[in-house]
Write a structure and sequence with these properties.
The complex is a heterodimer of chains A (about 120) and B (about 110).
Chain A lengths: L3 E4 L2 E4 L4 E8 L3 E9 L6 E7 L2 E5 L6 E7 L2 E7 L7 E10 L8 E2 L3 E5 L1
Chain B lengths: L2 E3 L4 E5 L4 E3 L2 E3 L4 E8 L5 E7 L5 E3 L5 E5 L4 E6 L8 E10 L3 E5 L3 E6 L1
Parallel strand pairs in B: 2-12
Antiparallel strand pairs in B: 1-4, 3-9, 5-6, 5-10, 7-8, 8-9, 10-11, 10-12
Classes of the chains: A mainly beta (about 120), B mainly beta (about 110).
């Protein structure tokens, strides 16, 4: 199984809503990532979790709150977002436990629209 | 800080033309290098990767890339493009110290006309 599964595929939320994006992988990977991708732009790294601990936060606003409940799951909690936060949010994973770096496997993304 | 640059932002080719997309990175340590492709409306797919060994790597769909350490480059090539190669191409560098950090280049939009 080389899949990274993201839910939901599409999400429309108001600026006062609270919602969560979910990501799951069963490849035993120990690094998990959140990226944000605007149209016609490269993915921008937001967060990296390594062995379930937050290891990189690329100065992301606090209205985005990541969580890694266990080694297979990664959540991104959203609160009080702005319309400019509308984008494709990508989850990825890499690095098997105790192993060397591998390529990152990406999910299909959640298309988020903030209204 | 680490960075990845792609020189060609938009490339337009006719079918059967040869393709070379440039990628340079700035990082003095060991890196793993990748090319990803994103077809219109689709998710990122890995084209090829370099970790170590032979600096000329072959990927899917007839693509290859050459790692030149002295030039900090990892250029993507294809001898003969097809209309179906129309997509966005991203070079990416994975830097591993305390953790893995995958950084993308700005991307190159390739349009292939029949």
């Amino acid at each position: 199984d080389t899949e990274v599964t993201q839910t939901p595929k599409h999400l429309v939320m108001g600026m006062t809503n609270k919602k969560s994006l979910k990501c799951e992988q069963h490849m035993g990977h120990r690094a998990m990532y959140w990226y944000k991708q605007k149209a016609k732009k490269p993915p921008e790294l937001m967060f990296v979790y390594s062995y379930e601990k937050l290891s990189i936060n690329e100065s992301v606003p606090s209205r985005f709150s990541p969580e890694c409940p266990n080694s297979s799951l990664l959540n991104l909690h959203l609160h009080a977002l702005q319309p400019e936060d509308s984008a494709l949010y990508l989850c990825a994973s890499s690095r098997p436990r105790g192993g060397a770096s591998t390529e990152a496997f990406f999910g299909q993304g959640t298309r988020l629209t903030v209204v | 800080a680490q960075s990845v640059s792609q020189h060609n932002h938009h490339v337009i080719l006719s079918e059967a033309a040869s393709l070379e997309l440039g990628c340079n990175y700035s990082y003095g340590g060991t890196v793993n290098l990748f090319w990803y492709v994103q077809y219109p409306g689709q998710h990122l797919q890995l084209l090829l990767k370099y970790f170590s060994g032979d600096p000329l790597v072959k990927g899917i769909k007839g693509f290859e890339a050459e790692f030149i350490k002295s030039k900090f480059s990892f250029n993507l090539r294809k001898p003969s493009v097809q209309w179906s190669d129309t997509a966005e191409y991203f070079c990416a560098v994975m830097v591993s110290y305390n953790t893995d950090k995958l950084i993308f280049g700005t991307g190159t939009r390739l349009q292939v006309f029949p």
